[in-house]
Amino acid sequence: MNRPAPVEISYENMRFLITHNPTNATLNKFTEELKKYGVTTLVRVCDATYDKAPVEKEGIHVLGTCASCTCFD
Hints:
This protein is an alpha+beta fold. The chain has helices at about 25-35, 55, and strands at about 5-10, 15-20, 40-45, 60-65. The protein has one domain (about 5-65): Protein tyrosine phosphatase superfamily (Protein-Tyrosine Phosphatase, Chain A, Alpha-Beta Complex). It is built from two helices and four strands; from the N terminus they run ββαβαβ. InterPro entries: Prot-tyrosine_phosphatase-like. This is Protein tyrosine phosphatase 4A2.
């Protein structure tokens, strides 16, 4: 499946990267893309579709914000 390219938005001193929701099968490529953009914190706004442990192992902090997320710690 073709996924849309990430979109970077800057506002004042903040940067946001809007991406698709990966799966465990696409997580390695997704993590490499995050690192390419210098992402340090990932905020999930959809239900979790992947294991956050491999992302955190790469030094990226994962947070969840949606009420139905299973990603709250």
